[in-house]
Amino acid sequence: MLHEYLTPHSRSATPSIHKGVTVPVAAPPTVPVQPRRAGSVPLRHVVPNLFRDPARTLVELGERSQGEVVKLSLGAFRPYLITRPEHLQRVLREKSDNYVRAGDGLQWRPLKRLFGDGILSDGDYWKNSRHVLQPLFTARRVDSLVDRLAEAIEEVVDELDEPARAGQPVDMGTVQARIVCSAIMRVFFADKISVPQAMRIMEAQDAIAWSVMPRLLVPWAPLAMPMPGDRAFRQAVQLIDDTVLPIVRAARGTAETDGDDIIATLWRGRTEAGGRLDERQVRDDTVSMVATTTETTISVLTWLWPHIAQDEQIAERLYEEIDRVVGDAPVRREHLRELRYTRQVLDELLRLYPIGWLFPRRALEADVIGGVRIEAGATLVVSPLITHRMSAFWDRPEVFDPDRFDPEQVRNRHRYAHFPFGGGPHQCIGMHLFYLEAMLIVATLLSRFRFRLERQALPGIKVAAALRPLQRVEVTLQPVRSVSA
Ligand code: HEM
Questions:
Q1: Which segments of 253-332 are extended strands (E)?
Q2: Which residues bind heme (predicted)?
Q3: ipTM for the complex shown
Q4: Exposure string (b/e) for 119-152, b if CB count within 10 Å is 16 or more?
Q5: What spacing in Å lies between the alpha carbon of 108 and ligand 1's midpoint?
Q6: Number of the ligand 1 atom closest to the C-alpha atom of 101
Q7: Ligand 1 midpoint to CA 203 (Å)
Q8: Residue of the nearest CA to atom 19 in ligand 1?
Q9: pLDDT tens digits for 421-462?
């Protein structure tokens, strides 16, 4: 039991839980005059489980910490686990200058071999890329693109009529990949990357997500030490470069006169100091943007189908809202603000499956969090997967319940109890895009079809660079008109 490793002070700090009500997070413990040392959790007991069932093991670590800052200890590598919303706010926002992403820390180090130095790094590279890319993803700009996204989504959804008529099962992971790639490549990449190329890149990303796992779970292993998955990782990065680099180079010549797709914007963009991004950084940012604009939405939505198959009432409320708001018209921008329950369902999916499930930080200078001394150079583990499933902050955390996101409950909850998009200066630039695109996809699919899952049980979580279901999600589709006829 972890209690053995926690101080009496930390044990008394657990907030109370009221059934059926979102738990307002208790005020942080007052900071003692003398910062104390963190309680320690020896990881040697949990490492085997970390490989067998990473999601459950991580959540158990959070439960055991009871929201206190604890040290996860395995030999020389001893990161702090930060789970309490107030502590997360300090790390991600209030003291973000002190807690850096550090491209060579924990999860970032293995992934740096793919994403290089750009928007997913830190320091000047990150600042320059963020400055150039952010204007493409403001709420106003994304809003203005909704109808174009909707048309692209509709075209792919049309292709489902045939398997629906034939009663043939479809794999929702693949269907969503085609929908997202078609819409994003057309609207954000001006078709410079074709859909088949994007699908190939996604396959390579999938291989990377999987092959990088041993390094994510054993982050103290030096890169020079061979590990399982290394070869597959290298091959996949090569495939991505072989696809992306020629496209990036070809786009350079026309960037000044092209529209504002991502690659032209990267070439044309000016940093705050007035400089340009070089070819390596345009490559790094293009690869980062292909990954973040695709895998994220696809992974989260794949969980929708097993959950609505499990809970008929939730499915009915979703169908009712979409039938009422959209009917049999094509989904358009004006529908989206009416789809309130659909948005709550998405928020609940993001609570249980926050695909950015781990984003560590490194402390530049010593600090005190929740009364615990953090030394300069320490690594901090920040994981929405853990915080979102802790009973200290959520009532019945394992239950899928979109009502947690009705406005009243959201108002009473700490902003960092639900933080699937991070926070502070590194907050996800794609948040608004995600909500609009995901609502368009769900509303388009559900206004056309009813879904029957081939396999009823909720799949386990495949923890890799994202959080995908362990088993394929296969469904048969029934056209809505034939249901209501
Ligand atoms: C389910 C949807 C998504 C989730 C859960 C998600 C999650 C996150 C999280 C947690 C971060 C912060 C990482 C950190 O603080 O170290 C982040 C950053 C980022 N996300 Fe997303 N994301 C999603 C969708 C998207 C989309 C659609 C885009 C496309 C534009 C995107 C682009 C980015 C970028 C470029 C960053 C880096 C921002 C920076 O460091 O300045 N994400 N995302």
A1: none
A2: 428
A3: 0.97
A4: bbbbeebbbbbbbbbeebbeeeebeebbeebbbb
A5: 14
A6: 16
A7: 20
A8: 428
A9: 999 999 999 999 999 999 999 999 999 999 989 877 899 998
Contact by Cβ (8 Å): 253, 214: no
Q: Which helix (H) or strand (E) holds 114?
A: helix 108-115
Dist CA 247 CA 249 (whole Å): 5
Q: How far is the CA of 389 from the centre of ligand 1 (A)?
A: 20
Strand (E) or helix (H) holding 234? helix 230-252
pLDDT digits over 317-365, tens only? 999 999 999 998 999 999 999 999 999 999 999 999 999 998 889 999 9
Which residue's CA lies nearest to atom 31 of ligand 1?
A: 430
Identify the bridge partners of residue 452 per DSSP, sorted by sequence position.
Answer: 476
pLDDT band at 107 (very low <50, low <70, confident <90, very high): low
The residue extents of the domains of the chain are 2-484
User: Which residues sit with their C-beta closer than 6 Å to ligand 1?
Assistant: 101, 119-120, 126, 130, 137, 292-293, 296-297, 300, 350, 354-356, 359, 420-422, 426, 428-430, 433-434
Q: Which two tokens stand for residue 282?
A: 């345009």
Average pLDDT over residues 107-127: 84
- R_g of the chain computed on alpha carbons: 23
Mean pLDDT, rounded, of the chain? 87
